[in-house]
Amino acid sequence: MMSDWIFMNGTYVHREDAKVSVFDRGYLFGDGVFEGIRAYNGNVFKLKEHIGRLFDSAHSLLISIPYTHDEIKNIVIETLKKNHLDTAYIRIIVSRGVGDRYNLDPFVCMNPQLIVITEKFNAFSSEFYDNGVEVLTVPTRRNRADTLPPQVKSLNYLNNILVKIEAKLAGMQDGLILNTEGYVAESTTQNLFIYKNDKLITPPCSQGALEGITRNTVIDLAREYGYNVEEGLITRYDVYTAEEVFMTGTAAEIISVVKVDGRVIGLGKPGKHATKLFENFKKYVVIEGEKIE
Ligand code: PMP
């Protein structure tokens, strides 16, 4: 039988045997961290950066990952090879592990678990890329930095899930999230950019955005192509009156937003800057990262 191999705590197990204890704190409390990564034609895009973010998230939660950066890099590559995948979606999950039943105290749980899953990537509908998407500002605000900091890519995605619920109930794919000050943070799982007055602007991560690897790549590429890129506060007014708005993320890559809260953005279709950046991004993803060899 064809079966995917999943790396679990030092061994490779078949997909159907990849089971986690009901006492794992990732399950009980969302107590863990994760990464979503893509491999393109034998190149794991920005693997080092993803692993860096994984360690930063874990460090901030006092989860001590029992592997080095290089070991995790090798495990990801090996898992892809074992599954004969050179183009894939990769999920790294680290939970604090199985603790003392329902005891919340993290210090009585010192056995973090590492799981690496690799799968064929299911591309988004081409309609999103051809026509762009419509989004709506949702009532749920982004977690404040002094609660569960949005820069931590933790297993607790409830803030984002509430946003997704609100967006979907309103008939939209995604929602625009404001922070508690009313400035734009990001969308459910993507960073946001606007193009206005010859400037490409994205919110600083301190305003409630994850430090997206795609976001950082787009900033670098745009600067390389001579764009004036700024991290700055963005209001809803700025979004409504922008020439272009687009979102970035590992799964979606770059998707144009053509309507926000009923306001048409620019010409109401994917704009030339997003299109240019996306074309260059697609060339870049097969080059920058770790080779599956
Ligand atoms: N924001 C959130 C909340 C996310 O979950 C993601 C996806 N990881 C992003 C932004 C985009 O980040 P990246 O480009 O690293 O996928």
Automatic annotation (TrEMBL):
Lineage: superkingdom: Bacteria
Reaction catalyzed: L-valine + 2-oxoglutarate = 3-methyl-2-oxobutanoate + L-glutamate; L-leucine + 2-oxoglutarate = 4-methyl-2-oxopentanoate + L-glutamate; L-isoleucine + 2-oxoglutarate = (S)-3-methyl-2-oxopentanoate + L-glutamate
Gene3D superfamilies in UniProt: 3.30.470.10, D-amino Acid Aminotransferase, subunit A, domain 2
Known EC number: 2.6.1.42
Signal sequence segment: none
Enzyme class: transferase
Cofactor(s) for this UniProt protein: pyridoxal 5'-phosphate
SUPFAM superfamilies, per database record: D-aminoacid aminotransferase-like PLP-dependent enzymes
Listed Pfam families: Aminotran_4
Function: Acts on leucine, isoleucine and valine.
Subunit details: Homodimer.
UniProt protein name: Branched-chain-amino-acid aminotransferase
